[in-house]
Design a protein that fits this description.
Oligomer: single chain
Number of helices: 7
CATH topology: Rossmann fold
Number of domains: 1
Order of helices and strands: HEHEHEEHEHHEHE
Number of strands: 7
Helix content: 25-40%
Radius of gyration: 18 Å
Shape: globular
Structural class: alpha/beta
Strand order of the largest sheet: 3-2-1-4-5-7-6
CATH class: Alpha Beta
Length: 243
Amino acid sequence: MVKGYLWKLRHAAEAEYARQVRVFLEKDPRASYLDCGCSEGARSRELAGVIGTSRISGVEIDEEAVARAQVAGLVVTRADLNLSLPLPDEAFDVVTALEVIEHLHRPDCFLKELRRLLRPGGYAVLATENLASWHNVFALCCGWQPFSLAQFSEVRAALGNPWGLDRGEAWNPALTRPSFRHCLVLSYRGLKELFQGHGFLVEGMGGAGYYPLPPGVARGASALDPRHSAFLTFKIRKSRRDE
C-alpha cells in the first residue's frame, strides 16, 4: 500500500513537470525541433504538436528505441549525448531534454553541444530530478543513497536505499543498460549556475512533486518552494548576440 502511494506521487510529479514543459514551449509552426533522449519518439511528436511544427528530429543512444522511432517515421540520430553530436551548427530553434542530464557523465560537453546546435535566440527546456528535494535530503540524513542517485549499478536496483521503489526488482533497465543509470543529480542552484556558465539565459524554472505530500497539496508547495521539489524544469535561451 505504501509503495503504491509513493508510485502515485511520482507519476503525479512527472505529469506536473510535463505540464510545465508544455507551458514553456512557444507556438511556432516554422520551428525546427530536436528532442534529446527521444526514446521511441511518442513524446517528441506530442511536444512538436504543442509547438505546432512538423520539423521534428531526435537523438537517442538506445539502438532498439532508435529502430522503433525510425519505423514510426521520426528522423532520429543514434548518438551519445556525452560526446559531440553529428548534427549541423545552429540547426534548431527548440531543444528538449527531459530526464536526460542525470544520465550524463559529461554534462559540460552536452551543454556545449546544445549551445552549438541552437540558433541565436533559440531555447531549450530541460527537466531533471532534484538532489535537494526533501525526500533526497531525508535519505542522506539516514546515511542512505539519495533516491535520485540509487540507479547506478548493474548489481541491484535502488542500491543503498532500502526505501527505493524498485529495490530488489529485476524490471529496471538500468540493471542491464548503462545509459539508463544515473550519473549526476544537481540542485536548483547547481543547474542554474551550470546553464549560466555555458552562456545561457535562464528564463523560467518550475518545481514538480513535493514528497510525501499528496498531488494537490504538492503542486502548491512546489510552487512556493520549487528548490526542494522532486523535479526541476528549466527554460534556457541562447542570446541573440551570438548572431
